[in-house]
Amino acid sequence: MTQFKSAEEAAAAGKYVRTVRSFVKREGRLTKGQAAAIERHWPAMGLSISHGQLDLTEVFGNNNPVTFEIGFGMGHSLVEMASQAPARNFIGVEVHEPGVGACLMAAGQEQVTNLRIYNEDAVEVLKQCIPDQSLDCVQVFFPDPWHKKRHHKRRIIQPEFVELLVAKLTPAGTLHLATDWENYAEHMLEVLTDNSDLRNLSATNDYVPRPQHRPKTKFEQRGERKGHGVWDLIFGKQ
Fold first, then answer.
1. At 185, which CATH number?
2. Annotated binding-site residue? 94
3. Could you write out the DSSP letters of every residue in the chain?
4. Is the per-residue pLDDT at 49 higher than 70?
5. Which range, of 7-16, 58-67, 139-148, 151-160, averages the lowest pLDDT?
6. Is 197 a catalytic residue?
7. Which among 144, 194, 197, 232 is annotated as catalytic?
8. According to the annotation, is 67 in a ligand binding site?
9. Residue 132, marked binder
10. Is 160 annotated as contributing to ligand binding?
């Protein structure tokens, strides 16, 4: 263990202490277009944990329902959803800066105004910035499956994390997950079913067909051509 009581105390002493995160950062290099998009659009669309807890009405200038997406990748499907649902607000969280840049570039091209972005750890954003019972929908699409059994504990969909998500949902809110790993889908189903504050909205009490509002990603389309399955789960708060 360490002699320091916190990472901040260690830093003050010039020492580094590894902390636990909900992701593994695999940072790529920003393209010129992505860097330009961040410089141009971040002032209007970017959010930071340093802003503290949000007043969502103030952030968006309206009382429209809010969809919160964790790990939007390059952001193309998130921008498409925001473009097609102007009466809904969207907040996306992504730790990888090239993805943030790509998302902002696409958002600028589509001229969406109902989207805000965090380049932060989703767990900390939820804990520090999102009021309880404020999100109409939380969506997590194709999170890292950590397919090796010894790495399953690193999967983001775990009971404690789901409890945090449920606390942020409105009384009629929904949690929408999707994965192309059957083993992870089974794990997701078990975790969500075990949460007494959620009910499965599937007619067969397991998975649902892909809703029209969730666009297919290029990755998903490529996988389907190879015969890979995709599993969507939608649970409502009860």
1. 3.40.50.150
2. yes
3. --S-SSHHHHHHTT-------SS-----PPPHHHHHHHHHHHHHHEE-GGG-S--HHHHHSS---EEEEE--TT-HHHHHHHHH-TTSEEEEE-S-HHHHHHHHHHHHHHT--SEEEE-S-HHHHHHHHSPTT-EEEEEEES-----SGGGGGG-S--HHHHHHHHHHEEEEEEEEEEES-HHHHHHHHHHHHT-TTEEE--TTSS-BPPPTTSPPPHHHHHHHHTT---EEEEEEE-
4. yes
5. 7-16
6. no
7. 144
8. no
9. no
10. no
109 and 150 belong to one structural domain = no
| pTM for the full predicted model | 0.87
Whether residue 124 is found in the same domain as residue 185: no
59-82 residue pLDDT tens: 999 999 999 999 999 999 999 999
- Domain check: are 202 and 224 in the same one? yes
Note whether 78 and 89 are same-domain residues.
yes
8 annotated as belonging to a binding site for a ligand: no
Q: For residues 157 and 111, state if they share a domain.
A: no
Domain that holds residue 196: 133-238
